[in-house]
Design a protein that fits this description.
With about 90 residues, the protein is mostly helical. Helix content is about 65%, strand content about 0%. The protein is built from four helices and no strands.
C-alpha cells in the first residue's frame, strides 16, 4: 500500500462522515444509557492524542484490514507488548 492509496481512502472516509445523518437526542441518550449499563464493568477507556490528520490515516488503514479503529489500536498494542516480551 502506498501513501497515495491511504490518502485516497482518507478522503473517502471524510466524505462519508460529512454526509452522515445526525443522531437524534433520544438515540444519543439511549446509546449512553446502554454504554453506561454494559461497558463500564467490561472495558477500561483510554484516550489517545495523535497529530492532526493521522486519525484519518489510521481509520483508513483499519478499514482496509476490515477492522474498527479501536480494534486496530488494540491489536497494535497487543502485538507490540508481545514483541517486547511482556503481556499475558
Amino acid at each position: 500500500m502506498y501513501v497515495r492509496d491511504i490518502w485516497y481512502d482518507c478522503k473517502q472516509i471524510i466524505v462519508k462522515v460529512g454526509n452522515s445523518m445526525a443522531i437524534s437526542e433520544a438515540r444519543r441518550a439511549a446509546n449512553k444509557k446502554w454504554n453506561d449499563e454494559n461497558m463500564k464493568d467490561r472495558y477500561d477507556r483510554i484516550q489517545i492524542v495523535v497529530l492532526k490528520g493521522n486519525k484519518a490515516v489510521l481509520q483508513a488503514h483499519a478499514k482496509n484490514r476490515g477492522e474498527t479503529l479501536s480494534g486496530f489500536i488494540n491489536r497494535a498494542i497487543e502485538e507490540t507488548v508481545k514483541r517486547d516480551g511482556g503481556g499475558k
